[in-house]
């Protein structure tokens, strides 16, 4: 397997390294970074810079606010941000989910209306897929939308909605043909969030940071020209959104796990347990898994660059997602074990961890977890969001191993 990037990608890498050296503060590379409120202020400034210069959506066309980069160049950019330890952007619904979906499915008017404000960071989007009775089994959703004049009237209940409190728009699924088969008769709607008929109730995460919300819709309005991909075609559109979610940061995440593992090794040395055979074996096994993750990321990138192997991409992404989310739990459990009894003591300043998948999240209430404690709590979510581990194993079994499909219960 050739792990080398082509010369033009390495030339672009040097450009990115120079840009980072210019814009990250002095002393950043040596670990002298802001903390607490100063950290949050810097993260806000960093986000603003990425949006202003098109780096938040690097592969988008320039006319919509991106930089027009190739997939390979975008991967190099993500790798260098991770290598430099730059702040991780929160998992933004506009930039990484609905934006690429609009690029793929939207008409010209929809692209002109919605994409530039996302690229500039001016409008925030939240995903309205999951419901109290429809999570992994998304096709069982019960939110409805009926046509009334030139609008759709939406009624339903969404839950585990990230960034709902700040959202300007929801991209959500609603059943528009209740008599159709479960995977049919669903539409993908771009719904204004700040209107009568929408109530948002926040759900704080265990470490005190903003996380999820439930969204109640009672007579909310959505223009008919804000249906993406056409009426009753929402399932197909939504599947492309989930592919964008699962395919992000494939070649860059391993850098952050490698950094976390190095911190755990230093912690073990400081605690005097680095010679414990069990601890040493667990650290060594974790190092091997970080290298496996690096190779997996390159495989995902290769499949993205080669359309002829696109059929294998979904199964490969399922394998990768399954691997890294379960490894994240394993790694944070190792950190807590190395900390020993100290792991039970809250001695942080309330600044959330900046590890893989976390981004930088606003604080809802003060709960002074340390960085490792925050990462441990967040890791519990990884095997649920973006498709549960059970769903990923079904995909691997059916599409890689050729096993029979899981039996479906009869329709009532």
Compose a concise summary of this entry.
By secondary structure, this protein is of the alpha+beta class. Helices cover 45% and strands 12% of the residues. It contains eleven helices and eight strands.
State the CATH superfamily name of the largest domain: Butyryl-CoA Dehydrogenase, subunit A, domain 3
User: Describe the biggest sheet?
Assistant: 4 strands, mixed
Number of strands: 8
Task: State the CATH architecture of the largest domain.
Answer: Up-down Bundle
CATH class of the largest domain: Mainly Alpha
Q: Output the CATH topology of the largest domain.
A: Butyryl-CoA Dehydrogenase, subunit A, domain 3
Description:
This protein has 412 residues and is of the alpha+beta class. It has three domains: 92 residues, Butyryl-Coa Dehydrogenase, subunit A, domain 1; 120 residues, Butyryl-CoA Dehydrogenase, subunit A, domain 2 (Beta Barrel), CATH 2.40.110.10; 152 residues, Butyryl-CoA Dehydrogenase, subunit A, domain 3. It contains eleven helices and eight strands. A four-stranded mixed beta sheet has the order 1-4-5-8. Strands 2-3-7-6 form a four-stranded antiparallel beta sheet, with no helix packed on it. Helix 4 crosses helix 6. The protein is globular and about 70 Å long.
Q: Helix and strand layout, with pairings?
A:
Layout (H helix, E strand, L loop, with lengths): L6 H17 L12 H17 L18 H14 L8 H13 L2 H12 L5 E4 L15 E5 L2 E8 L10 E7 L10 E7 L5 E6 L8 E12 L3 E2 L5 H13 L6 H19 L5 H29 L4 H30 L31 H9 L9 H11 L13
Parallel strand pairs: 1-4
Antiparallel strand pairs: 2-3, 3-7, 4-5, 5-8, 6-7
